[in-house]
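Meet our chain:
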Amino acid sequence: MSLFATKSIEQIEAEQLGSGERSLKRVLGPMDLLLLGIGAVIGTGIFVLTGQAAAAYAGPAIVISMVIAGLASALAGICYAEFASAVPVAGSAYIYAYATLGEFIAWVIGWDLILEYALGAATVAVGWSGNLNALLNEFGIQFPAALSAAPGSVVPLGAGGSVTAVFNLPAVLITIAITALLIVGIQESARVNSIIVIVKVAVVLLIAGGGAFLIDPANWHPFIPPNEGTFGAYGWSGVFRGAAVVFFAYIGFDAVSTSAQEARNPQRDMPFGLLGSLGICTLLYVVVCAVMVGLVPFKAMLNQPAPMVVAIDAGAARAAGTTWASVMHALRLLVVVGTLAGLSSVMLVMMLAQPRIFYAMANDGLLPEWARAIHPRFRTPHVTTIVTGVAVSIAAGFTGIATLGNLVSIGTLMAFIIVSIGVIFLRRTRPDLPRPFTVPLVPWLPAFSAVVSLVLMASLPWSTWERLLIWMGIGIVMYFAYGSRHSRLRRDAQSRIEN
């Protein structure tokens, strides 16, 4: 069989949907999906990576970077919406690739999605740890510095001096808690996520409203800092590199598509959840970015695990002796609490998505049988959820946020390119397929979506590309060592030949 043999949509649905103990529960409504999208998107990007990208790459023009990243996400989101409405099963981009580009590309994208979801959750866990330490410091509590960051990180002490960290314990503990919640059930997880989303959106609005009164316009000049002689160090190249980095802020929306098999009416509700969450979050991001870089000189946020808190502190210092100072100090506490809540929901959605990718791949025989196990009571993929939790814990405990963030961005952009190309292929191979939601201007809009994602990938550092190539190399070896030998599609074809 060809490496690029595809499965029909009808075959995919018959195999994935299953029945009884092998099926997932359809319990999610349109608002659940919308809030899952918002829960995944508003998190590390706005509270952590945005400030770091402004400091290192784009300066105040991080606002433009956000718009560019939002555009790339919207283009890909439209492509995801068509697939999610036409192929309403778990698996997201992996399944879409299997239906259009073939088994080998499907494996590649499934392997690539581990970078997006598992390492994405690890990135968020590291940000969660930094903000927990900021919250404890508000109450005069010093978490053991050696256990608060990745090995080799220099952690400053409140009384002066510093300590070299050996392990990030808070990141591991939040990962364990999220894993336990996800095993209990999708509906329970969605309820917790909905509560957290309400809290963090309220906090984001308070930041924008309170901080707007204390902006120093001088911090916005020059809006695009002059390039310092290397690609990505400010200037327009910095704007694009900043867009590639903060693109991480948007990636959660596509995790909604992994829940298609648990949506009550996926054909109607999946596009609503995908595109609605993107639109709401883009607006919030642009406003908050403008306020953040208006409160503090952008370079002051360099290498800060909680840059939003740095911006609020600058606003409070500017308002010293006025009523606004008290407001900003109260807002600072709300920011830290809201950030912790926001990052928790991002982890929840990403760690919800990854096991469902494994579940879909195991259904196709590309992963071992245990990876498609469903808990008899909770009807969740509990084994792969535990595996995901262990992997995320290890990555979060031993890796820094910058390395993780860039890997997640490049992995996600690669997925977006394949999904965008897949729309073009599926239109040509299955023009008769019912599509409750359709991408306009095919093939031009999907092609443009793929090009934009490719440009953002090219803006990332070469070291990130090296890690991607190594990761993909490992995945290809695993495919030929196990996946291609156990593929259900290949076994069925062999049986037909023998019979």
